[in-house]
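Z., the sequence and structure:
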Amino acid sequence: MIYLKVDIDTFRGTEKGVPNLLRLFAEENVSASFFATLGADESGKALKRIFKKGFIKKMFRTNAVKLYGIKTMLYGTLLPAPIISKKLAETLKKIELEGHELGIHSWNHVKWQDNLDSMTENQIDLELNKALSSYSALTSHKPYGFAAPAWKINETALKSLLKCDFRYLSVARGQKPAYIKIGDIVSDIIEIPTTMPTLDEILAWDNMTPEKALQYLTDTPKKNNLNVFTLHSEVEGMAYLDFFKNLIVNWKKKGFSFKLLHQVSEDLKNNPQKYAVTENPVEITFKNFPGRAQKLASV
């Protein structure tokens, strides 16, 4: 089984990438879990990351301008930041109408990724409440899950997330579900980590080509393991759409099928030992991952 986790970071990724992925998933009879950024696209403010070690290298290796577009890279600076859930509500609604899962990625992706460690609990609460309110207006129900931008989480943010009545979180990298803790905050909500490297990370590895990346990802999932692959609507939904179609076809040839991420938490209710989940919480650590400029939460 493979669980596809689609992170939607930008206005362009919602407008262009999501419809492309929905068409592909319909053609291939594939289910996926989408996590939407619902508020202002301030991607232009992310350019300050150029001063972080490894960021420029990744930008060139992955051809970020082609992936995200010039306009996206100016939102929130030289161009006004569009509110994604207001301008593209019908696109987001279509995700559930076509049988997929829609969860929350953020209200403001750049703010969460770049400023989380300087935000107060009240500020984080406000970001989450705006996202939840917007989500409720779109769907008339509560979301199952929350996926943290760039796998960025801290003690204060975890405390805020536990007020939101999510059924599961996906805020870390790892190999199996777990109950997590950060400092004094212990979660009673199951964490379902991303278990595989992302395509944009792999393409930033030395001596990597798209052909090698396709073979690597084809061979990575293992039967009887938790296989969670995070893709991005701006990457696999656009510039690498044909690549991703070939990857899905390859996985299907290997006998894999696809389920929604929230079904992991449902399965664990019936069979808590399926992934050897223990009641003892696992401390979140922060690690470097090849192809990433920032450390990621790990479980």
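The CA atoms of residues 217 and 247 lie 7 Å apart. DSSP finds 13 helices and twelve strands in the chain.

Let me know what you think.
H.
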